Amino acid sequence: MAHPELFLKKNEDKRLRLGHLWVFSNEVDTKRNPLSLYNAGDLVKVCASDGKVLGTAYINPNTLICARMLSRKPSLKLGNKVFTARIAKALALRERFYDKPYYRLVFSESDGLPGLVIDRFGDVLSVQITTAGIERQKEPLIEVLIELLQPRAILLKNDNPQRQLEGLSMETELIYGELPEQLIIEENNARYKLDVLNGQKTGWFYDHRSSRAELAKLAKGKTVLDLFSYTGAWGIPAAMNGAQQVVCVDASASAIALAEQNAELNQVSDTVQCVQSDVFEYLKQARLEQQRFDIVVLDPPALVKRKKDFKAGYEAYRRLNHLALQVLAKDGILVSASCSYHLSKANLHEILRSSARHIDRNLTIVATGGQAPDHPIHPAISETEYLKTYFCAVSESL
Questions:
Q1: Among candidate residues 24, 40, 71, the one where a domain is terminated
Q2: CA-to-CA separations, 265 to 186, 199, 200, 256, 389, in angstroms, rounded
Q3: Mean pLDDT, rounded, of the chain
Q4: Which positions are catalytic?
């Protein structure tokens, strides 16, 4: 049976023709096809105003992004066959970069599966479904994951706020198998205990792995301050690569407890000190006590989650970088990162420039970083490129 048609207004097909995958509700010709005709998760045939077919999408008439393209083919059936092909392709790509099964297996639109994120922790899969279109196909998705990967457990991490916008439940669910009593992954030659059930997002942040490896190369003999450390992904490899001292700071008691366990697991407990504290307060106190670190890593959570949060978020990033520079030793390295899509590279660049000038420091950017290969960027969808990292050499003003 053919999919129902969804017609766009005149000239609203241009972005899709350039490769983007989103249709916004205000782009739909609602006089021709009222959105009330569709159910959340229905497959539709997207058509330009002149009737030319643009492809297959799934729809949610109740959301701003009301349709997400799945294929340029007009009659795609989302199910076992499509999931098998696209997940197998994503798997093959990751296996070209990583020799162990620890990576983001599926990164939504970039892997042709909008609304789906899967992190692989060995034989445990942490899955985030954020759209009604994928939720409707949950059963075949799980079948394919079991067949392709033979996992020990599959956890549906349903605590993403995007699910509320889609009218979906927020209850995390162990949908297959049994979680091990202790889950340990490997990254950059370090081992980490995870709390995949209660941890943030899918339980780990693979996206910075390449930049964390670069930081570790700079750490020998240095003192390192790892801010917003979570469970130690920046600080512990630095300690393993010969850092003189590493201080991990995070506001979460559970994250700090895991960071301490991970330091012990990697035999660097004597080098790593874990501090539970608000980062702003820690930096203010460190400044008052005139503490200085050779390397400061600033990797905060997304402080600009929505466009309307930009002003407050920008100010928070500015304050953090300003404070971080003030506890940096002479000829130190600041690693400043942002995972906020709405804070651009240019914004972070300007924050670094102005913060350094304000305290009369000479700052040069010596390297940049971004998403690891398991977070591929779709060239037509700027939203898939969110991570930016600057490695900055900071010295006394010339």
A1: 71
A2: 11, 19, 21, 14, 28
A3: 95
A4: 339
